[in-house]
Design a protein that fits this description.
It is a single chain. This protein is an all-alpha fold. It has helices at residues 21-33, 37-49, 53-76, 84-92, 94-128, 139-154, 161-180, 200-215, 221-228, 232-259, 267-297, 311-327, 333-359, 362-386. Helix 3 (53-76) packs antiparallel against helix 14 (362-386) and helix 5 packs across helix 6. The two termini are 24 Å apart.
Length: 389
């Protein structure tokens, strides 16, 4: 889950000269999408979708790439580098900007609770060798992860740019190691990763819906595309290249995980994987809590008066994360908490497609209308299957 820096909220100006705009756009797209989801989502999708996981991943990447293409063409010649909320506000009005910021501020808190619960499940699995049954046993660990993340967000420190740049690579390498050893091992129904009593179609729909958590980041094009000033073909090529990188990462992890099923993991290796997973995910909680507070600060009436969130606002975001963590102490808590970011992504992307229909040329309007219908259809079809989760 990522959010463009505040610098991207600046007014439109002359785009910077970029030698290879396709690579720049692809890097921003892949960097925006690939994050904590590399560790969290493969086990969740396996628990929910089973053998149909590859199909769910492919559908997600196709939908996310379509969103990115529409948003990229929408902002390419109309706006300067902005966040998704800024783009919605510029094209639809202040109400749209505040709506996107509002849903994403809440979604980030639910997402951090899900990340913390996954880290707690990983640690408990290392101790017992199998994923624990759902319950409150992991709640102290989840709250501990959130406490460390919030404390770090309150501290007057800035993570080095090099660390942030290499963190997705570290998460990817760790996710690959977990996939090779199929760890956490077979988290079936009744655990934090999968609710019990869910039908097979319900599991598929919940997996697809929860994957929108991993898809928060496709909107990075609203900042990346105007910044490089590329033409329509090179812009589309950059988005497609970025989507291909995402597909290779996620589909590759899913394929490797399927081959590693049933491989026993020795206790020392379990602890190495669990501690490393918890450490990486805690770092994401730290930066995401700051992002949620920054988004919440933008909801103030005098937005330009204070761009930096107060410590009290960071504490309020942390308290909301902990409240969601308490709510997540049930079977399937992780994917159900991920429905928060999923709903926010759906709202934000839907408003982006509405802007494309209202302000685009004939081809962009047609693409926006089609994508809006797909998003609405996914939401409508998913509700009956998810209502019993």
């Amino acid at each position: 889950m990522t959010e463009p820096p505040d610098a991207f909220d600046a007014p439109a100006g002359a785009p910077a000269a970029v030698t290879r705009p396709e690579r720049a756009i692809a890097g921003r797209v892949a960097g925006g999408v690939l994050g904590a989801g590399l560790l969290v989502m493969p086990p969740v999708v396996t628990a929910l979708a089973g053998g149909a996981g590859l199909l769910v991943w492919a559908a997600h990447v196709l939908l996310g790439a379509s969103v990115a293409l529409v948003l990229a063409e929408l902002v390419r010649a109309r706006l300067g580098p902005v966040s998704l909320a800024g783009a919605a506000g510029a094209l639809l009005g202040t109400w749209a900007e505040r709506t996107v910021d509002g849903v994403f501020a809440v979604a980030f808190t639910a997402g951090q609770a899900a990340i913390a619960w996954f880290a707690a499940t990983a640690l408990l699995t290392a101790a017992d060798g199998v994923p624990p049954a759902a319950g409150t046993d992991g709640l102290p660990l989840a709250l501990g992860v959130l406490t460390v993340g919030v404390a770090g967000a309150l501290a007057p420190l800035t993570l080095p740019a090099a660390l942030l740049r290499w963190r997705p690579w570290a998460a990817g390498a760790l996710a690959l190691a977990c996939a090779v050893w199929f760890w956490p091992a077979d988290p079936g129904p009744g655990t934090a990763l999968a609710p019990s009593g869910l039908s097979e179609p319900g599991g598929l729909w919940l997996a697809l819906a929860a994957l929108f958590f991993a898809g928060v980041g496709w909107e990075a094009v609203t900042a990346a595309v105007p910044a490089v000033g590329a033409g329509p073909r090179r812009t589309a090529a950059g988005v497609v290249l970025g989507a291909a990188c995402v597909a290779v990462a996620y589909l590759g992890l899913a394929a490797v995980q399927g081959r590693g099923a049933g491989t026993p993991v020795a206790a020392p290796a379990r602890w190495v994987l669990a501690v490393a997973t918890a450490a990486v995910l805690t770092s994401y909680v730290l930066t995401n809590v700051r992002t949620a507070a920054r988004i919440a600060a933008r909801l103030r009436p005098a937005r330009s008066a204070r761009r930096t969130p107060t410590p009290w606002l960071v504490l309020a975001v942390g308290a909301a994360c902990c409240a969601f963590a308490w709510a997540g102490a049930r079977d399937g808590g992780v994917p159900l908490l991920l429905l928060g970011p999923a709903a926010a992504a759906l709202v934000g992307y839907a408003l982006g497609t509405v802007a494309a229909v209202r302000h685009g040329g004939p081809s962009l309007r047609a693409a926006g209308a089609l994508l809006l219908a797909v998003l609405a259809g996914v939401a409508v079809l998913a509700v009956p299957f998810l209502s019993g989760a």
